[in-house]
Structures
1.
Amino acid sequence: MTKELKFPEICVVDASAGSGKTYALAKAYLSFLMNPAFNAENIPQKNILAITFTNKATNEMKQRILESLKKIALDSFSSEQEKKDILSGLGDIDRKTAQQRAYSIIDTIIKHYDFFRVQTIDSFINSVIVGCSFSLDISSGFNIEKDYEPYLDYCLDDLIELSLRDTKIKDAFLEFINHYLFIEDNAAGWFPRQRMLEIIKTLFDCSNTYGLPFKKNNEIKSKDILDRKKEVFSLIQKLADILPEDVNGKFKNSVKKWDVSLFFIPPYFDKGKSVPMNKGGVCPEKVSKIWESIQKNLELIVEMEAFFKYSPYVTIYDLVLECFKIYVQKEDVLFLNELNKKAKSLFDSKSVTVPELYYRLATRFKHYLVDEFQDTSKLQWTNISPLVEEAVASGGSLFYVGDKKQAIYGFRGGDYRLFDEVKEYYKQHNIKEEILNKNYRSQKEIVQFNNRIFSQNNLQRFLQDYSSKEELLNTTHINEITAIFSESEQKYKDENTRGYVKVEQVQIEDKGQGEEVIREKFVKLVRSLKKREFDYRDICVLLRDNKDVELVTGWLLEQKDIPVESEKTLNIRGNFLVKELFSFLLFLHFLPDNISFVSFILGDIFVKALQGSAKIDRKKLQGFLFNIASTKRRDEKVLLYVKFRETFPQIWDEYIREFTARAGLVPLYEFVVSILSKYNVLKNFPHYQGFIMAFLELIKTQEQENCGLESFIDYFNTVEDTELFVNVTSSNSIKVMTVHKAKGLEFGVVIIPFLDINNTEMKKKISQGFVIYPGEKDLSIVKVHKGYCRNSALLEKMYINEVKKSIIEELNTAYVAFTRAKNELYILIPVKKEENIARLLIPETSAEYGEQGTYKEKKEKEPTVKEIPPSDYRDWMKLLDYEFADKFPMTDRSLVVRGDVVHYMLSSIDSITGTDIESILNKTVIETQRKFPFFTDISACRKIVTDIVSNQECKKLFSLPGKTVFNEKEVVDSAGNTKRIDKLVIGEKEVWVVDYKISEKESEEHRKQIVEYMRIVSEIYPDRKVRGFLLYATEENIALKEMT
């Protein structure tokens, strides 16, 4: 930013790859914080909002800002140039004042960190929704979830069931079935529910992406299309009867054979074509009129199909959505991908004004900074634009930075056109534009290679070559595409004079053979890089999708000696220890599960736990299993755990029996922690504790939704892989990831083993899907198929527009991939016939630029790493045995629940008098029914509680005038262990400790437990007498025992 300030201001920064956009944003933020011309408040960060699109970008920007403040405060810049660059944006301020100001701001940020608003767009929108939840008819404590699919699945099933009783719903399904059978092509079998659910999920995503409902099409039915097809068939038959003798013979034969049931449209009737007459033949006027009528009807049919194709799905979707809204409101849930749509409804309904919103947020922003603006969606901009407009109108500013060449999130609604549209919208204001075209990341040869590939001349040539074969893109389309890359040429740093790029086309015959050829080249390349002293951490492999990530990760894992890090290797579901733990849980859930039992006892966890005890090893276990397999009859069913228990009774009792007895009774988190403790998992496998801790964390986060063993097993089997990745610190491993995941990152060496822009697949993807066209109030959903182009100019235009968008996306993805490399870039282009048009983008069969070398980069000093020993988890089951000594001996789970209900009712009663017992009990019963809605025997529990409070001996525990009463009181002993006392009564001279036991049977464990509670309480109240009481209660008997 320049020193000259004039507000309101719109600053637009076009930042190519590696040009320092984060640095530019941090500099702008610093200027707003420190420049005296801005008249910042006492909390200067309070009126600045910086929006990013990932948590990583958020953390990076915060770090840059704080580091810059620290450098200013301590006058500790890395160079005079850096000092000059940072201080230049601070305005008319001397060095000493700048230092003092920086110190003060750092102190203010620490004290008021909640006003340091550098956050993701989703985080900001969430705070808006929380602040205005009353206007959205949701609670302020709503839960945010990612996975909405189970809810839609449930609501679809509910809707199908309702169709038996509701005529409207039944008619909607009948229309869908007619459409599915007679209109849809490539119908997915005779059971359409799965396809219906998949499209409903897609529609839900699209509606939330654009913030609009779908346009209802009630005018056209399946029958209308079928009738129109029959009419065309009739016209063609009529045409066949009156065709003149001099008409084309092939055409005449094809017309006679044409079958409407297949509805294959012969190319003769394509738009713009006339009746195919032999040379010198003249078409009669009557024939021409029928011909024109056929073409108009065909045009109408394909357009009806295109615009109606998904209407029955939209109808079902709307009905599912009604059920969905009711269901999630009951659950008090919002989903991550619908936050922006919810926020939009605030402004659409005028439920909140900008001043009121600022009031709810407890701040007012004057300056807005937006990162990665090319990936901002129209909906996201719609939500923040009222705030930006208010700020600009009040003398504030908007600073946004981005790069249209890196717009690769169109599938999430990102719209690169906003970059220029917003600039045009604010043209009446003071607009400053800046182009950052110096690449600080890459070496000379890489910068120059990208300059050549994405130059206007090369792109023009590439698109013209493509269009000459496809005849799709015209000059206007080509110019629109190349305009995105008009500012692609970059300069390199003076010292970055080296670099190396190698491009090679690989001729392949089929997919399998091609993968094998590329695998050999790839592995050879990785080994050669290692020989040239590249660290594995310097190498990144970039791929199109997760399927390729899995393939290449497998190649590297096969090598054994090449460390690799990818989503596959970081998925806890694939970790061998987690697999063994999960197998054990499967077995404990269903003891006859022989496969899970064998998987566990032959696994490393079990075998390692037995080592050193001279008991059994893996070989002996294998022999045990082989002996059973070889001696049992073919039709004999054997329960392996029973055989194991008989063969190794001591091992069973010591390592397995207690878990089979407690499965489903102990909370799952504590249960798994006890397994880890019993088998010393973290001590035996310290290098894998990240995976184990992530598995435990997953269990913990699912305590509300999937707390039981069975429900967690179902969840773990079906949860998306994205929920199961371990976050790890940087390791010396090759990184394998998708191009989308690599955005914003940089690597010493980048390898792209499959640069594939498959023209056939691209067009197939367009034809098999649908296109969303957002209007002002709703969304239109259109089937854009290449075959429709022959009969409709409108649909041809739509199809070509989708091809143009696909090519832009492919070029942007290639640009992002190529510009991640710092020192060396390797590109392999698989070529099979003419399908891969990447060969047109980089036409050389094989090319090398620059020279290979070694790069001794100045690396930051690595922080001292101190090895932290694995956590020493205790056996929680033993602790729970102690805490709930009366529960676990129960084999009837209904008795456990009954005990919980009685405990809860007693904990609701502090102190009573003889006159209000009934009203207190009535209130307690109502509260208990809310807590345990599915418990049916509440009357029996009430009787127990009534007997207790009416019992002459027990009355003193509930008639407590002048005393302080705590129910379910947690206390902590000197070792840090938390204990929960059922009832703690504190008087002036005495403290009573009361523990309820819903059983008749007294035990030494009960006595030890109450004595331990008394010891802890006596340390808290050393000047008072501590008395302990054990209250035993059943429907038949009440007994109170005082402990000493």
Note: The CA atoms of residues 964 and 986 lie 5 Å apart.
2.
Amino acid sequence: MVAPVVHGSSFFIPIGGGPVTGPIGPIGPTGTTGSTGTTGPIGATGLTGASMIGGFGSTAIYIQDGNLHQIFHGYNFHGDPIGGYTGGYVTSTLVKGPTGQSVNSIDGGNTYGGITYTSAYVLPSGGATVFKSRNSDEIITIKAIEVTGDSLTLTDNTESGEINLHYDRGNFGYLNTQSSSGIGSLVGTDGGTPVRLHGFTGASYDSGLNAIDVRVKSYKEKSKFLTVGDGDYDIKKQGDTTNYSGTINPNVAKVFTIDMRQLDDDDMHESGFTGPVQLEFENASFGYTGNSISGIPAEGKPNLSKAFTLIVHGATNSSAPIERFTNVTWPLDLAPCFSGGTDIFNFFWLPCETRGTICPNEASWHGNLVQWKSSDNVIDNSTDNNPFWCHTVAGTRSMYNSGEQNYNGIEIMNSAGTTGATGACCLGDGMCVHTIESKCFGYFVGCGTTCGSSSESVCLEKGPCCSHNTETKETNCTQQTIDGCINYSDILHIETNFGGTGNKCYNMDCLSASKDLGACCDGLGNCELLTEIECKNLGRFFHGEGISCTKTYGTETIEICAGGTGACCEGSTCSNNTTFKSCVSDSGNLYAGDRSKCCDIDCASDEFRGRNASIQALNLQPGDLYAGGMVVGIYRPNGGAVHGHESFGKDKTAHWTDLIYGATGSTSDNIGSTGTSYRSKYDFHGYGFTSDKGCDTLNQLDILEDDTRIDSYYVITALSPLAITGDREVVLLQDYPSATAEFYWGNGGSSWGPIYDQDALKYNDLNSDYKNRFLLNEGYWYDEFMGEPSLINLPFNTYTTCKKARSLGADGVSKLLTKPNQSPNGFWHRNYGFYNNVRTISADNALSQGYNGTDDAYTSGQFGPGLTADYVSAFRTCRLYDDRLNGTTGAVNGFTGSNASEVSSWYIPSHDELAFIAENCISNNSYNFNLNSYLLANGGSPYTGWYWSSTGAFDETKGITGGHQEGVMVSGATADPGTVAWAMKFDIDGSHDRFLVGKKNRTHNTYQVRPIRMIRCDGKYSSDKLTKMPKVLRDSDKNINQD
């Protein structure tokens, strides 16, 4: 061990005898390197190192047992070869690959999600399928990628090798406007400070048409001047001929001008004409309107027509038989000729009837000649001023050479369903064809008439010809041949009407003729000047435009509808040469008027068409004011279009669950089913009158035929919903804002009451046995004892047959007695609203007057409890609306004038009657009538919000599964009455999807009441227990409707 060195500050002397050696000093610095010596001799060459040579054969690397091996050969340190040995690297994993000669090829495929190969290998979900095909070992084809729509953008980044797909979702938000004229209004700013947003009045977006509906203050139509020449022109020369042709696109402008006078003299025909000009028009396209290119509207969309004007200068015709317009429909199928002057045509894109090569696409351009040659030219078919002169040259009239040939294509028209007796039809210019009146485009001489020979043509017979100058408004009458009268109308601004052969001008009313008016007979001797369409829509007999209601023969003047001799309709049969007196001596017969023929009129069954002379004489139209309200239209129980709850549009093939639902268990006014449009189902037990036709005939009726009006009737609605004051005075809510305008439906308990003779105060129901039905209160929908089979029977008891309904007879009482006790709504009727009201008022009378049935069949208590004294039910409110309201006023005290005896009392409509009113309030409805608009225009209130119907119902949520017995028949043949009734919510804008309908609680929900009244089209009416509304006895002190 080395002793440590100790350092100190004191002096000391070492122990020992003599001096010792001190420690070694530090090493000094290294000196400088000396110079390099000389290079020594080169040593001997070393041994050759080991090298890699062939292992097996000449292979230095080989695979054995799936591993990679290397072989080395070399020498030892003495220079002796040491032989082969395995050295180098041996792989630890297997090496795999093709054996023998191999070729690398390329292939492809498409992946898709969902396949699991192993737990560790699952294909991803989704994926693109871009592989298309394998062309060869070295080439594959992938699919092209494209996008459609304005929101997607596809780009190719060649630098990064990527395809980029960009989706623009747009910008979304909302505007908080100050006011609006309705949903869909365009939004703009006002001039205030600060600037505020508001909705424009009269400017809205129509999502159905995908268009903006605005008022246009000024509009400039685009015109296009078409170039003409030999080469690249709009109207170009055809080769070495003198023919010119071109295609016009009417969608790019509204006025087109062709001036053939711009041609060089060398291009003109040697005659000075331009030669034949042939024009083709492209089909109309509508773009944003949603119409198809054919012009036929898409489902639920209106038909929007287009129009344009063509002005042609200097075009004339040669002797070549060439069509001037290749896809245009013309009157009489005759295209006007070119005059060489200035010809002006108007064209309209409209639907049309396909007839062979005419109108092949069910729509075409309809042409109309406006001017021929010049503005002051007078057209005269007997001179060169005849716009159709070229047809005799071209041979297009060859089909009429005999003057008696049938109308071309009449067989096709008849096969399409057109019927009627044929007769002579004069077309002018000596042409006469045989056809039916509806297909005659000239003057129809009459059924059974013939054209005659060319020299003795019926068209050469004379009669009065009324002419009307549409520019000066002058009218005149001259004696002309039929042909002459028709040809006279070819003159610009002149319209003519022929008054019949053998007639005279003093029997003509040419002013009426200029307005398309003529004598219209109602069959009972009354005459009115109407248009032909108006007259025939009323089922009356039209005598011709300009024909007066009186006619003079020599010194005798007769009433055309009550004099002379003519056709007499005796039901569905007809007799000729009958006088008015002998015809109408039998009740129900109709006289068609002087000189009428059975082959010219239609004596259809009154019951099917609902034709009754006295009702027709009222001439009621939708929107008319009558009987204290407004005419909605004609409701057809057998197939009329309505908009209500879909369960009412089913049939006996429906499942029971489709019929019973409608209750939600909620009294909320925001809950209900969205309404749907359907065809009203006929009630063979209903309507209170004897059926005249047998079941076989009724079962063959087409519900889609609007003219089939069995048991149909006019519906007249009150102009406003009813409001009532505290002393039970019916008032207008706008005059009495504090009045009650929403009401409970009825009393508690059963609302199906017994009918009483109110004079004798005795039971007077359908028969004596009917009282036993009151044990069921309001009927039932489920039989607890029968169980599941009762549900199977439900559709068959709901939609019964005619045979079953008439098993006891065809009178009104017998048909009601056969009505089953079971239906989704029990005893209540789906479209026989008047009878629902009779029963409900009878129930209220039984409660208030203490009516009790014999043998304890019913007690007054089962029709209650009633509402408290502060409340008046919907039905009592309705019967406080005076039946004496009449004439054309809807005022509460409007008693001016008188109603027809066929007008019923006011009553609350049934579900389907209310659905008929709803159909007339929705947009684009089946009747093309906007009831709410007419109500507003006549001082009434539109239908909006919830309204009660008179159809009671059961709350199925309180039936089998609810643990109660509402509408469920239990042992002892009893069933609890319903607690709900059908109600409907109207949308003020007429939007289909905002009309709600559902079963609402009778004594919890309060809704509006708007009564209706009816007039049967067949004129049937009576005052028996099925057609006379009972008096509400608890309101007898008001002395309203107490007769």
Note: The mean pLDDT is 79.
3.
Amino acid sequence: MINTRIFASFTAIISLVAFWTNTSFAQNASDGFKGDVNGVVGRVAIDTSGSVYIAGQLFTSVNGVSKSHLARLNRDGTLDTTYNPNPNSTLQGIAVSGSKLVVVGGFSSIGGGASGGIARLNYDGTNDGAFTASISGAGALAVDTSARVVVGGHFTTVGGLPRNRLVRFNANGSVDPTFAPDVDSAVFGIAIQPDGKVLIAGQFNNVNGQPRWRFARLNVDGSLDNTFNVNAAYPGSNGTTYSIHVQADGKIIVCGGFSRFGDPNITRSNIVRLNPNGTVDNSFSPNFGSATYDARIQPDGKILVVGLFTTVNGANAQRIVRLNMNGTVDTGFVGSAGDTILDVDLQPDGKMVIVGSFTSVNGFPSINRIANLYPDGRLNTDTNTTVLGSPPATMLSLGNGMTLLGGGFTSVGGAARQGMARVGWTGANDSAFANPQLTGWVYSLAVQQDGNYLAGGDFTSAGGTPQAKLARITPSGSIDGSFAPTFDTSGWVNAIAVQGDGKIVIGGGFTTVNGVSKGRIARLNATGSLDSSFTATADFYVDVIAIQSDGKIVIGGAFENVNGSPRAGIARLNANGTLDTSFNPVLNGIVRELLDIKIDKNGKILIAGAFTGVNGNARTNIARLNADGSFDASFINPNLDGAVHNIAETVLGTIYISGNFENVGGAPHAKIALLNTDGSVNPQFANTTANDKILAMTLRRDGKIMVGGYFTAINGQGRGQFAAISYPQPVIYDLQVTNDRIRWYRWWYAPEVTRVVFERSTDGVNYVPLGSGSRTAGNWDLNIPNANATGFIRARGYHGDHSDRGSFTEQVQYVAKASPKAVPFDFDGDGKTDVGIFRPGPAEWWYRRSSDGQVPALQFGTSTDAIAPVDYTGDGKSDVAFFRPTTGEWFILRSEDGSFYSFPFGGAGDTPVPADYDGDGKGDVAVFRSTNNTWYIQRSSDLGVSIITFGASGDLPVTADYDGDGKSDIGIFRPGPGEWWYLRSSDGGNRAFQFGTSTDKTVVGDYTGDGKADAAFFRPTTGEWFILRSEDGSFYSFPFGGAGDTPVPGDYDGDGKTDAAVFRPSSATWFMLGSTSGTQIIPFGAATDRPIPNAFVR
């Protein structure tokens, strides 16, 4: 897309709940994406619910219904007929803003209201009259986090005001008077960085009077960002740029039609990546044969690119390609289109929507101008894979979108597959998984921790060799001959569960295992040998096994006794196989057999099969038990007229059931239905009219329901014993990583999971566990230090119970840890504040390197100099430095090589206030002149000088980055009333508040680790610290230190949070309260020394 969309927040998701909850949708075995448009589609935007907005200049019909220029589709491609904004002319750009949509184009009326070229639409498509903007000639837009809209195009005036090709509207639609850049030609693309800076692309050559060839970065106020490196000899691109995309690590992808960018001598073929500072990233050099129009950066860091091109790096690539993070082509992505793709966007479930002028995709004809691709690039079209022989009897969904099938079949999708197969997103047979040749039936499947598969059933051979009942299969489909447990010839294996320790619990109709008598249940070691410590036995066959979070094992089947005690159809075992006598639900009925058991998110136990009641309470074929086995009366009787074979729970708490029933709750629901959390029938899920029994079911990560059984038709559509059922309710995933927490958010009809494991990888291939998540209010959280270290985070959630054997879903997120702000007083560059002192008499500096404990010492300065150590050279290490008040000179000792330089800046009586005011990663020399309340700052980025009047007589300077934009803000503490005042660099606003008294000492720092400085003070009379949280304005206090101690705040443990610390002159001892490491006590220095981390305490 030529403009950037900001996805809605959780608040926006909530605002959509009522719409989705009260809207009826019919699921369908015609599960492919249904979109069809009669003219070119130029733009697509997808909101957090998965709804698909399309816009353009030429189309007049969508899915055969009259719709001109703007339409909304459900996530399955069906037309949302409730959405009718009806613009009276063309649309050029669209952007999601919370639950609303901002649009620009040539219209004068839209959503039932008059709007000149720009409008904000409510979710129902009506015009949001509170947004009063008007513009002509706009084409690109982006919405910032404050709902301000940045618009680009061909215009030169907006609302009677001069605005040359770029304007910003406030949230109410008024023109923002503080933003007025001057661009000399059209703007086609806009992106807004997390810090609020604005990136623009287009056909221009100059911005604000400076050469900027078709690309520029602006500050929040519209001025050119002088910290963004531009080659003065070649300041941009030699061709049009169309779109801009910012990666997680701050690098910038620019798409367009050019062959040079930033250097006339190096080819950049239609795409380039810039480093965050504006220099070209030479490690990224794909060669596109023609123009690229748009890109989208996936959560895993890979880059989707679309456009006009037909080759990449000389190889065939038809208008869409996915690049790895290093710019190489991802050969696992197979998408292609027969004509131009103009735009692409990602759905919350990982699929993608492409739009353009094409009429074929991946060789499929009549895919007209919109298509939906699976994560591997395959077209989301109807799943119609025929299974020959007997049907699938069991299924597992895998995290990569694959599905394992087990049953009595001999062929899947036209390929020979005996007993077991693996199918991909489209349902097609996965040729990378060879025919395992399991001759007979497979009734159960499991995945081991090493990725190998287990298949249990009633087969007699595997891979052409005699191996009966249970086999281990590699991910390539070969049989692992080292795993060969034996069973009695008349037995079979119905159920498999893999414990967390790798041991394998099996159930079925067998009576011996490895020659040892075992009554229908046993436990194997991971090697296949028998675990003799497990002593359970059942008197008839075991159909299902579920493992609880505490390691106890719930079993179901047709048995009447377990371990010699009466247990009809259900029992719970302790981890060693002994009977849990506290658990004794009683199934009622002439025939009573459990076929499925699932542990829900609250620890309750869903049971399904063939029975008429539980503990004397009427419940036909499905019920819910409390964790102790008692009957859960809150789950009503859905009154099924046939057996239930399978249960699958969604995050929303709704429950899919399938089996051999015709009616549920008195209404027709053939073989499959959806229940609410209380067991009542969900009427939104219509009757599928499946014409025969469903034996197997699994819920895939994209919300599709995969089913197998004896049926040959669903919804009147021919399906040969295998089908995918699409249900157009949203599936939402969001993996969030902060400094000390990983959070996995899933919502709506995503599969519910009972256990989540978080893992990390440096290469995206090899993962190591970080720990198990804890469920917190719908999320899964893992709190660990340094959670956001650069690399890949994978969340993997397991369905149904707490074993490692079942279906699972996963999400991968690439995390780029922001370059840490310079840690104060870090002389060795290890990210930790170093203990150090300045000895005034001989003017000696002594510091203890936290990296290795070594203690360098040097002489630099005189006893009357004011120490001012910060990182002036940008190498990540603080430089020894001082300001000489008598002459206004600065002396800086370079940490790189030990050389020094000096220069005058300031005058007698000035207070040194060095800090990084321009955000270039280098400390700027600066002084505060109390005689005229003026700040003088020499910017390291361009050596220009800023002169700012701020403060009053008697104020103390307290510079820090209070607004978190990466630049230090001017600030003062007014001792009399204990007031703080600071000037935000992000927007020029100021803030004032009262906090402290005249005798307190200011100890500003980021104590909470949110990237913003917290106002704070140390009270010398009591040794207390008081900290005002930047997040919410609340404060907290605690004692640390005593009367006479000197406060020395710093990040001593390197966790990104300022630590309270004091130097006690009486004993020359340092006390540090590490926010992660705890208390440290280090003797260092002498009573008359000045501690270096006290340099800027006022």
Note: Residues 10-21 form the longest helix (12 residues).
